[in-house]
Design brief:
about 325 residues, mainly beta, 2 domains
């Protein structure tokens, strides 16, 4: 029969062997830290945050615009244009007027307008003047590809690809009608590896953050129409909006940041980064807070435009609804 001393010796030997084995098969690894959430919410809470944006009926502001084209995205390349200035006017549900000025010169480069049904895009430079018109509810992916190969229109860069709904979806997105039996809203948590944007963080330092994702699905469709992303470490700030086609393709990916207080019971982002993968462009919009006005009266005539009469026949007219 084994003595107590022998059993104690065997026990120490076993424990020592296990410790030795554990030190051989594992080691500490540095990973990006996880930022613990500071906010919890229910599905109803998130819907309320989205629907608060209904308080904004109209918006006007001076803006800075930074365009990027994504033709070389598959090869990891893009083309970034010089920052331009402009003015944006928005009115619910889908009306817009956007003026874009050439950098430094301050002259008009392009204007876009829409009354919510039809849109006009007017390109000013004399060597490729054009008036492009179409319908808001169409994507025109094939027609856009054709225009991109046109030697004259190609000079306009990403301007031929922008559409009113790219902006109105980002600024004046629809309220979520939970009473509509055709709409389903669901929420989930997602975690992302992102650059740390907290005060004092080192440039390039990465962290893992927790988000709530609110998906809005139309009954019978295989893909959500929209996904709203809320940062759980920033008091449920709405930081992202993704829009999808019926086939589940990512049509728009919008990032919101640098929120500003307003006289309304809602804050608004002053930086809006719009990525349109299939329209092959991205646009960073920075609003001038000193010029931002909310809910002022805007005449309907502000949302239609035509080529100046003095241009005569020098302007090229492109109707995207016309089958050539």
């Amino acid at each position: 029969m084994a003595t107590a001393a022998m059993l104690n010796k065997i026990s120490r030997l076993v424990i020592g062997t296990l410790l030795l084995l554990s030190s051989c098969i594992s080691r500490g690894v540095n990973v990006p830290p996880f930022i613990s959430p500071t906010s919890d919410a229910t599905l109803s809470d998130l819907i309320v945050i989205v629907n608060q944006r209904r308080e904004v009926q109209t918006l006007t502001a001076r803006v800075d615009l930074q365009f990027e084209t994504r033709e070389g995205a598959e090869q990891g390349r893009l083309r970034r244009f010089r920052s331009a200035q402009g003015r944006i006017i928005l009115a619910r549900p889908e009306s817009i007027r956007l003026q874009i000025e050439a950098p430094v010169l301050g002259v008009n480069l392009a204007e876009m307008a829409s009354d919510g049904r039809r849109f006009q895009l007017l390109i000013y430079p004399e060597d490729y003047r054009a008036l492009i018109v179409g319908s808001n509810d169409r994507e025109y992916l094939e027609r856009t590809r054709e225009m991109e190969t046109d030697p004259e229109l190609k000079k306009a860069g990403p301007l031929v690809n922008i559409r009113p709904q790219h902006f109105t979806t980002a600024f004046l997105f629809d309220a979520i009608n939970v009473q509509d039996p055709e709409i389903i809203a669901v929420m989930e948590e997602a975690r992302r590896l992102v650059e740390d944007d907290s005060p004092g963080a080192k440039r390039g330092q990465m962290v893992v953050k927790s988000y709530y994702v609110l998906s809005v699905i139309h009954r019978g469709e295989a893909s959500p129409r929209h996904q709203y992303w809320f940062d759980r470490s920033r008091r449920l700030e709405l930081v992202g909006l993704k829009s999808f086609s019926r086939e589940g393709l990512l049509l728009g990916d919008v990032t919101f940041s640098d929120y500003l207080p307003t006289a309304l019971p809602v804050t608004l982002p002053s930086r809006i980064y719009i990525v349109r993968p299939y329209d092959r462009y991205a646009l960073l919009i920075t609003m001038n807070s000193q010029t931002m006005e909310l809910n002022r009266d805007i005449p309907e005539t502000a949302f239609t435009l035509d080529a100046p009469t003095e241009w005569s026949d020098s302007v090229r007219r492109v109707d995207l609804d016309r089958e050539d």
